[in-house]
Amino acid sequence: MQVLVIGGGGREHTLVWKLAQSKKVTKLYAAPGNPGMKDLAECVDLDIADLDGLADWAEKHAIDLTVVGPEAPLVAGIVDVFKARGLTIFGPSAKAAEIEGSKIFSKELMEKYGVPTAFFKVCDNLADARAFVEEKGAPIVIKADGLAAGKGVVVAMTRDEALAALDEMMGAHKFGSAGNRVVIEEFMEGEEASLLAFTDGKTIVPMLAAQDHKRVNDGDQGPNTGGMGAYCPAPVMTDALKEKTVKEVLRPIVDALAKEGRPYSGCLYAGLMIKGDSVKVVEFNARFGDPETQVVLPLLKSDLAEIMVACANGTLTPDLVEWSDKAAVCVVMASGGYPASYKKGIPITGLKAANAMDNVVVFHAGTREEDGKILTNGGRVLGVTAVADDIPSAQQKAYDAVDKIHFDGAHYRQDIAWRALRRLKAK
Q1: Rounded CA gap, 82 and 86, in Å?
Q2: In this structure, which topology does domain 191-426 adopt according to CATH?
Q3: Domain residue ranges of the chain, discontinuous segments joined by +
Q4: Do the domains 2-91 and 191-426 sit in the same CATH topology, yes or no?
Q5: Digit-coded pLDDT (tens) for 387-400
Q6: Cis bond leading into 339, ω under 30°?
């Protein structure tokens, strides 16, 4: 089987790494890929916004399975383009991917079909949005309607913070057209977790629950980022809560999309807020999470390529998916200044030493290669992932690996998995 992975970040490096373990995969391509993938896949310099160009290339190279990492090509309709040509592709159609592409569509769908989520209001202009915030006060959550690379959500703890966020989104157009409309919703208390699931539109097979760390600084302080690290499994998601989430969230939303003429297949990501035995949806994503993928897929014992083909072909069964009982922790190493402005092109050392450690993989998120050297090329540069028997051991191993890697200005959180460790100590 020849497989093409679309994308060039840490999530896509993880997908390539896992697909390379499949006995069914004979050749792997990544478009555009990154330096971390080059030993596993042939990196092809293709424009991932050129959907017809990607399909042309896949046809020409007899690709048996295409796997889409980022949200933008999915929302733009890459799956529709490929399927129209008879090409097998893992991911939802454009109409189904709107569950991520539009926060408003997602919230209204949940409201219509009774999927538990926060109270919300849709605002089409800045004056109405500011008036609603003045009325409701803070804490409150402001979300840009469209895609904003994971950064279009502001959890405002004060009224001034909320108003400033609205001014940035709707007034200054910080996220372009994504902020033309906003969703303003109640602040939900509790602990967040991410539950991803494989689905072919009928059968739903949940993965292991993970927990991301969105804030840039230790103790969940500072501005939101694309994610500073993750761990899996997340103990906040008990077996009972997982069963409840499938019954009250995943099953109803997959059925709802089918009823709306938007059948969903691929990976469905549910961002959840958990308080006691209550589960509410924070957001849905139409693809694998980043950095959750870096801790979930290393614990998958099954053949990922086989699962993905089954999802694409409508033949998914629960027995195809088997998990390890180990734990994984990923620490993101970021460029100095991230999530604000940062420099690129800074040399990275110590990658070989870290990768040589047992059960450690360094996933490249924002790197490039120049004259045989690996340089920084993004805000989130590396995802250092370790697998061990339990979360404390995985955390220790991940930070031991981080200590071997150096680049000027590098910063990272030193408390990844702190909530899990607190829960374990409380037992």
Answers
A1: 7
A2: D-amino Acid Aminotransferase; Chain A, domain 1 (3.30.470)
A3: 2-91, 125-180, 191-426
A4: no
A5: 999 999 999 999 99
A6: yes
| pTM reported for the whole predicted model | 0.93
For the segment(s) 2-91, the CATH number from 3.30.470.20, 3.40.50.20, 3.40.190.10, 3.40.630.30 is 3.40.50.20
Q: What is the pLDDT of residues 98-131, one digit of tens each?
A: 999 988 899 999 999 999 999 988 888 898 899 8
